[in-house]
Design a protein that fits this description.
With about 160 residues, the protein is an alpha/beta fold. The chain has helices at about 5-20, 35-45, 60-65, 75-85, 100-105, 125-130, 145-155; strands at about 25-30, 50-55, 90-95, 110-115, 135-140. The protein has one domain (about 5-155): 3-Layer(aba) Sandwich (Rossmann fold), CATH 3.40.50.620. The longest helix is centred in the N-terminal third of the chain and has 14 residues, at about 5-20.
């Protein structure tokens, strides 16, 4: 799993990329039960710049925001799946409820979130704007969500 990094390693990479004029795109999420909506978001994020960093909520972080029954897949499995995608260049885990600290350290050129967020709600936008970066929201794929997959499994198998 050579594409999973500690935040300090990514900060060093970010500094080098900036000197070289390479764009860094950043997104984050839980990515529990990876589905088409996730993959399309990641592919579109990658198309905005040269290097895509994905901050992944750790298991403890997910429990804080999604409840005790989540995640379905543990952080190691979710990270492995993400780094296996050709559009993802780097993954880092974080334990906090939001990726604000990572974004403040990285200051990516482009910060991407799904279309369920309004730009003025995106955590870390001020840090990105402070370095002349941009915040982009990408429309969600209709009918594709982890919640819907879980509900379908419950309906089909838990009768």
């Amino acid at each position: 799993m050579g594409k999973i990094f500690k935040i300090d390693e990514l900060v060093k990479f970010r500094e080098k990329a900036k000197i070289e004029g390479r764009k860094v795109v950043f997104t984050n999420g839980c990515f529990d039960i990876l589905h088409r909506g996730h993959v399309e978001l990641l592919e579109k994020a990658k198309s905005l710049g040269g290097f895509l960093i994905v901050a992944l909520n750790s298991d403890s972080s997910m429990k804080k925001i999604k409840g005790e029954k989540r995640p379905i897949l543990d952080e190691n499995d979710r990270a492995y799946i993400l780094v296996s995608l050709k559009c993802v260049d780097a993954v880092c885990l974080f334990d906090e409820e939001t990726p604000a600290e990572i974004i403040n350290k990285l200051k990516p050129d482009i910060l991407v979130k799904g279309g369920d967020y309004k730009i003025n709600e995106v955590v870390g936008r001020e840090s990105v704007y402070s370095v002349g970066g941009e915040v982009v929201t990408i429309p969600l794929v209709e009918g594709k969500s982890t919640k819907e997959i879980i509900e379908k499994i419950i309906k089909s198998y838990c009768k």
